[in-house]
Amino acid sequence: MQKPYIFITRALPESVVRLYRDQLNIEMWPEEQEPVPRKVLLEKSAQADGLLTMLTDSIDQELLEQTNSLGIVSNLAVGYDNIDITVAKEKQIAVTNTPDVLTDTTADLTFGLLMAAARRIVEASEFVKKGEWGPWSPLLLAGSDIHHKTIGIVGMGRIGEAVAKRAIGFDMNILYHNRSRNKETEEKLEATFTEFHELIEQSDFIVSMVPLTSETRHMFDRATFQRMKEGAIFINASRGAVVDEQALYEALVNKEIAGAGLDVFEKEPIEADHPLLQLNQVVCLPHIGSATRETRIKMMELCLDNLCRFFSDEKLLTPVK
Ligand code: NAP
């Protein structure tokens, strides 16, 4: 039998991919840094039986409707806001993602971002490297305490819970908000379910871990930032578009909130002259939540395992329902 033709939209390490070549006829876009051009992606997906995609690839209606034999899209991310799930379902194209394997890694980075923003770690490092370190002074680079403060997690799912576990180690008071209350989580993590606006008003640290959906797009808007405490620090490691960035910028410059830690942006890469990048009280990272070598390899293997299972009629490990 002919092996299914799989197009992988970015160069992945051959040491990982070669283990799957006896089951799958794999072609990879040869660049590691540069995304596959849209035209090539359209051509390849029109012929492919399976795609292994990155979050930078828009797997939209246009692409899905011009496919001929595509059976599965295996996305190298837990978020799948880059894929039109409705059209995929209509066309009976399976979609898989990479939950769980990246949970702890992303939670580590999220908590690191919180710590960096609270204790001004990046700003302080720049200060030393630029030779600005002069005499000791009592309030030099004084930040905010983390321990015993209140953390409000919006989106208490897999990663949200892992962030809460880290917060327990810092003796933090934990609030959370989801659409549905989760009693098991509350008992396990001593977390308190709170309505969105109450969480926003009561938290010292607000952490967004919600998926990007039509409901969550710009859920952190002008009115939301205005409700936050003056000393609040906002952390976003979910998706950029859950935040109205102009509203966040205004809240920061008007000192309505104290700082922010951002791993994700509405437009990635963010423009170098974006106003948010000019603010010392903002720590910015280039969407590296799950970026450790170990985790990225686990994510690749999970994507490839799902592809193999699909073509041998086995149960998918992590289907998007
Ligand atoms: P998850 O387990 O599905 O958790 C998502 C949580 O958000 C759920 O608890 C869900 O609870 C809640 N939620 C969904 N819609 C909501 C809404 N409208 N209002 C309030 N809460 C809502 O997903 P996860 O594995 O933790 O991943 C979360 C997100 O993190 C991903 O979707 C992805 O965008 C992002 N992420 C980013 C990185 C990075 O590199 N920065 C890495 C991994 C993941 P209910 O269903 O009860 O509302």
- Side by side, the strands of the main sheet go 8-7-6-9-10-11-12
Number of domains: 2
Might you state the CATH topology name of the largest domain?
Rossmann fold
Summed up, the helix count is 12
**What portion of the residues fall into strands of 2 or more residues?**
5-15%
Rg measurement, Å: 21 Å
CATH class type of the largest domain = Alpha Beta
Characterize the overall form.
globular
By CATH, the superfamily of the largest domain comes out as: NAD(P)-binding Rossmann-like Domain
Query: Roughly what percent helix?
Result: 25-40%
* Average pLDDT for all residues: 98
| Separation of the first and last Cα atoms | 30 Å
Q: Stretches where pLDDT falls below 50 for ≥5 residues?
A: none
Given helix and strand content, the structural type is alpha/beta
Quantity of strands, as a count: 12
**How are helices and strands ordered from N to C?**
EHEHEHEHEHHEHEHEHEHEHEEH
Bound molecules: NADP nicotinamide-adenine-dinucleotide phosphate
Q: What is the second-level CATH architecture of the largest domain?
A: 3-Layer(aba) Sandwich
Mind describing the biggest β-sheet? 7 strands, parallel
Protein model, in words:
34% of the residues lie in helices and 15% in strands. The mean pLDDT is 98. The strands form 2 sheets. The chain has a 7-stranded parallel sheet with strand order 8-7-6-9-10-11-12, sandwiched between helices. Helix 5 (103-118) packs across helix 7. The chain has 12 helices and 12 strands. The chain has helices at residues 14-17, 38-47, 61-65, 85-90, 103-118, 121-129, 158-168, 183-189, 196-202, 222-227, 245-253, 293-311, and strands at 5-8, 25-28, 50-53, 72-75, 94-96, 150-154, 173-177, 191-193, 205-208, 233-236, 259-262, 282-284. It is α/β, with parallel strands linked by helices and 321 residues long. It has 2 domains: 5-100 and 293-311, Rossmann fold (3-Layer(aba) Sandwich), CATH 3.40.50; 103-284, Rossmann fold (3-Layer(aba) Sandwich). Helix 11 links the parallel strand 10 (233-236) and strand 11. NADP nicotinamide-adenine-dinucleotide phosphate (NAP) is lined by residues 78-79, 99, 102, 106, 155-160, 177-180, 209-213, 215-216, 237-239, 263-264, 287, 289-290. The site of NADP nicotinamide-adenine-dinucleotide phosphate has 30 residues, from helix 7.
